[in-house]
Amino acid sequence: MTDLLSLQDIVDAVDRRRDREPGTRRIAVAGEFESGKSSVVNALVGKMALPCNPGLPGRPLIKIRHSIYPMIFAEDTVGRRFEVEAVRDLMGITNLAHCDICIPIPGMARTEIVEIPHQPGKGINKGDLEVLADADLIVWVTIASQAWRLSEKALMETLPEGSREKSVLAISRADHLRDAADWEKIETRLLKEASPYFSEMVFMQASSRNLAACRQNDDAWIKTGGPSLASIAHDLTADKSRARRAGERA
Ligand SMILES: Nc1nc2c(ncn2[C@@H]2O[C@H](COP(=O)(O)OP(=O)(O)O)[C@@H](O)[C@H]2O)c(=O)[nH]1
Ligand SMILES: [Mg+2]
Fold first, then answer.
1. How many other C-beta atoms can be found within 10 angstroms of the C-beta atom of residue 120?
2. Whose CA is nearest to atom 10 of ligand 1?
3. Which residues lie below 8 Å from residue 92, measured CB to CB, with a gap of 6+?
4. Are the beta carbons of 151 and 83 closer than 8 angstroms?
5. Which of 27, 70, 112, 177, by CA, is between 20 and 30 Å from 241?
6. Most ligand 1 atoms within 8 A of CB, residue of 32, 52, 152 to mutate
7. Does the Cβ of 60 fall within 6 Å of ligand 1?
8. Ordered per-residue pLDDT tens for the chain, 250 residues
9. Distance between CA atoms of residues 184 and 166, nearest Å
10. Burial letters 45-71, b for 16+ CB under 10 A, else e
11. Which of 166, 167, 170 is nearest to 244 (CA)?
12. Which residues, 6+ apart, have CB-to-CB distance to 94 below 8 Å?
């Protein structure tokens, strides 16, 4: 047996990454390894949908969508399929290719969230670029203490023109900053250096402790930054669908 992929395999792999139900909005949560993507996804949906570091081995493409019947479907790189009830049941599988998590997410009935890991210093692969270009909203996750590195800027520059209007910068681990002066310093620098690429910025405090507390109270959820991000996501994607409907009428 050969390990070489045919051209069709590659086309299929790209298509599968882009696949989504008609009428479904897609939010792509992207960033470098361990920048806090899974924590941002959990903050966005207000529950521990994904394991934070260590995440799933093999760094599969992860999709999350609303379903009243919770279920998780996954496939590994050799086409074996898995259907499990909890993400922890997939933790032993080292060659997962993709993983679809269906859970109840109030207010996100027609929205799909995709987590896209990016290896710093490596150019973005075609499949991931296609998913970002095709997304209705891109949330780029950067770590507050080292926010907005050259490698991140280089990646955002590869996105198609017009991507700024649908891109939001999530600044993770803001709870690790020393004081309000540090927040301000970072905010001022990012407004100057990153605003050509993002239409909004949100400071996140999505530590495991804050995320775990979301179940009990809304104040904890507000503290993570999740509701702010969800509201921006709603406004940006709602505006877009209004614009699309207006375009259809014209
Ligand atoms: N204190 C704090 N820790 C965070 C925050 N975001 C992520 N982390 C931690 O950083 C590590 C990597 O986060 P994770 O979401 O798994 O990153 P990913 O690899 O980009 O998905 C984990 O230990 C998280 O608990 C945050 O806002 N505050
Ligand atoms: Mg992750």
1. 14
2. 36
3. 57
4. no
5. 70
6. 52
7. no
8. 445 555 555 455 545 555 677 788 999 999 998 999 999 999 999 998 998 877 788 888 899 999 999 999 999 999 999 999 988 899 889 999 989 999 998 888 889 999 998 887 777 888 889 989 999 999 999 999 998 999 899 999 999 999 999 999 999 999 999 999 999 999 999 999 999 999 999 999 999 999 999 988 899 999 999 999 999 988 887 755 555 555 555 4
9. 24
10. bbbbbbbbeebbebebbbbbbbeeeee
11. 166
12. 57, 58
The verdict on domain 22-244 having CATH code 3.40.50.300 is yes
Q: Is the CB of 206 under 6 A from ligand 1?
A: yes
Structural tokens at position 82: 């898995």
What residue segments make up the domains of the chain, in order of their start? 22-244
Tokens 């310093």 belong to residue:
185
CA distances (Å), 249 to each of 67, 107, 136, 245, in order? 31, 27, 20, 6
Q: Which residue has the tokens 């402790």?
A: 209
Burial 176-195 (b: 16+ CB within 10 A, else e): ebeeeeeeeebbeebeeebe
- What strand order describes the sheet that includes 167-172? 81-84, 71-76, 96-103, 61-66, 111-118, 25-32, 137-143, 167-172, 200-203
User: What are the residues whose beta carbons fall under 8 Å from the beta carbon of 181, sequence distance 6 or more?
Assistant: none
149, exposed or middle or buried, with CB in 10 Å at 0-12, 13-18, 19+? Answer: middle
Phi, psi angle pair for 179, to nearest 5°: -155, 180
The answer to whether the CB of 213 is under 6 A from ligand 1 is no
